[in-house]
Design a protein that fits this description.
Length: 157
């Protein structure tokens, strides 16, 4: 059963026409908003999502990213002014003219993820490890002076 048949049986024609009008307007808005992007940008962004886990404890943040099919040479990690950036590019070589492809689901392209962290980080102590397609970045928090609670005496003049 199609959307059109459902709408025509449940709603008068004017409701179905109104819904189609809204759908066309929405599609037009989306097309207009994305028309200025370079060719392939949307597909690359959609094709290469980077799944992250971010864990925090009292001493550090631990960021884990799944990057299957990549090597450590294809990934760049940087930290600047409280912003962690993970970027890279996945390349897949295919001979489109020579080979016959039946299914193509693996994606290629570039990606970048940026994370702003909620605590000051000791940038010089950040460590990154790449193992079996998983990137782990440890970001130690800056040690802050311990404050002790105390009662403040109120003086009178």
């Amino acid at each position: 059963m199609t959307l059109r048949s459902i709408l025509s049986t449940r709603y008068p024609a004017s409701s179905a026409d109104a819904l189609r009008s809204v759908q066309r307007a929405l599609q037009s808005s989306i097309d207009e908003a994305w028309s200025g992007l370079p060719a392939g940008t949307l597909m690359e962004a959609a094709a290469l999502p980077v799944a992250l886990d971010v864990k925090e404890d009292e001493k550090a943040f631990r960021v884990t990213a799944d990057l299957p099919g990549l090597t450590e040479k294809e990934v760049e990690v940087s930290f600047d002014d409280g912003l962690l950036t993970i970027r890279g590019e996945k390349k897949i070589e295919r001979d489109e003219k020579k080979d016959t492809w039946h299914i193509v689901e693996r994606s290629a392209g570039s990606f970048a993820r940026k994370l702003s962290l909620s605590a000051p980080i000791e940038a010089e102590k950040i460590e990154a490890k790449f193992e079996k397609g998983v990137l782990t970045v440890m970001l130690p928090k800056q040690e802050q002076a311990q404050t002790t609670a105390r009662k403040i005496e109120i003086k009178t003049s």
